[in-house]
Design goal:
- By secondary structure, this protein is an alpha/beta fold.
- 18% of the residues lie in helices and 29% in strands.
- The protein has seven helices and 30 strands.
- The strands form seven sheets. A seven-stranded mixed β-sheet has the order 5-4-1-6-11-8-12.
- Helix 3 crosses helix 6.
- It starts with a strand and ends in an 11-residue tail after the last strand.
- It holds the Pfam family NTP_transferase.
- This is GDP-mannose pyrophosphorylase.
- InterPro entries: GMPPB_C, Mannose-1P_guanyltransferase, NTP_transferase_dom, Nucleotide-diphossugar_trans, Trimer_LpxA-like_sf.
């Protein structure tokens, strides 16, 4: 049996307004809450028990996922009254674990989409007799991430969190947000206070002589912190670029959920998802976008790389490119919103009022 802790307590501020009413891991990607993909992939890799560490809008998780039986696992929930950081959340959730002190515990973040071989990471951890194993990936520009150099045997040599100078960039390997802990190591994390595994736990373990093992796997990896990344992840799941047993339909250029209506002459492509009860008007072109349940896309609109919130309405001939429209918002006809433009939940944008907007 492999146990896991799933960290889903963040507020998802960079994804607002989409996360005003919905925590980031519950925002639909490829037709289901993003978290469903992570749970399904973990279950397929042999994980049998997941403890979900929640905080922000914690009450929405259990009504959807229940006891985990639909995924063939046991699922439990632990709520943080105040945010405890990554390490504090792990320590808090560990109260529900059942394994012994040497048992491996998989820990992963609720906002990372990856093609990681989860079972392989656990096996590598056990073969290395490591205290903690970290999934690492290589990126072209590592400045926004935590650097993790390793020796030829994969032993972690140092941690540099978000390097600020060229001299600090000693590797292109970054912390990919998935770990395997020896259970006893989790129990050594201070309880009842905020703790960062990246800034406190891992450097402290390294200084104490613990064995930290890095597993570098060149696989699909995407941090879903920004709207454009979330939309891309959904499209990649729909198109099968990264696999998930939770995608509710065949892989292809689009996924139209039951109850949605797509008018004749509308064109869907690039991994677009149309949620239940949504309507796409005649002549509309929707590319690589997420249209959530009950949303309306008017006739002759052009929508690309955008996220349209639940029950939102986009008027005729409007152009959206890289935009985020909040739940229940109304965007009138003949508008043009590009390059990160966001319309807040329930807001109303009159017709022909904006030709171009950017928050970057």
């Amino acid at each position: 049996m492999t146990e896991a802790i799933l960290l889903v307590g963040g507020q998802g501020t960079r994804l607002r307004p989409v996360t005003v009413n919905t925590p980031k891991p519950m925002v639909p990607a490829a037709g289901v809450p993003f978290l469903a993909h992570q749970i399904a992939r973990a279950a397929a890799a042999g994980v049998t028990h997941i403890v979900m560490a929640t905080c922000y809008l914690a009450e929405v998780f259990e009504p959807y996922f229940g006891d985990g039986s639909d995924f063939g696992i046991k699922l439990e929930y632990v709520v943080e009254d105040e945010p405890l950081g990554t390490g504090g959340a792990i320590r808090n959730a560990a109260q529900r674990l059942t394994g012994g002190p040497d048992a491996p515990v998989l820990v992963f973040n609720g906002d990372i989409l990856t093609g990681l071989d989860i079972a392989g990471l656990v096996e590598s951890h056990q073969a290395a007799e490591a205290d903690v194993s970290l999934h690492l990936v290589r990126v072209e520009d590592p400045r926004a991430f935590g650097l993790v150099p390793t020796d030829a045997d994969g032993r972690v040599l140092a941690f540099t969190e978000k390097p600020q100078t060229p001299e600090e960039i000693v590797t292109d390997q970054i912390n990919a947000g998935c770990y395997v802990f020896r259970r006893s190591v989790i129990d050594s994390i201070p309880a009842g206070r905020p703790v960062s595994v990246e800034r406190e736990t891992f450097p402290g373990l390294l200084a104490s002589g613990a064995k930290l093992h890095g597993v570098t796997e060149d696989t699909y990896w995407l941090d879903l912190g920004k709207p454009e990344s979330f939309v891309q992840a959904s499209a990649d799941l729909v198109r099968g670029i990264v696999s998930s047993p939770a995608v509710p339909g065949p892989r292809g250029e689009s996924l139209v959920l039951p109850g949605a209506e797509v008018a004749e002459g509308a064109k869907l492509s690039g991994g677009t998802v149309v949620g239940a009860g949504a309507r796409i008007g005649a002549g509309a072109v929707v590319q690589g976008s997420i249209v959530l349940e009950g949303a309306i896309i008017g006739a002759d609109t052009n929508v690309s790389a955008s996220l349209i919130g639940a029950r939102a309405s986009v008027g005729t001939r409007t152009v959206l490119d890289g935009a985020v429209i909040g739940d229940g918002a109304v965007v009138g006809a003949d508008n043009e919103l590009r390059a990160g433009a966001r319309v807040w939940c329930e807001a109303e944008l009159p017709s022909a009022s904006v030709r171009f907007s950017s928050d970057r």
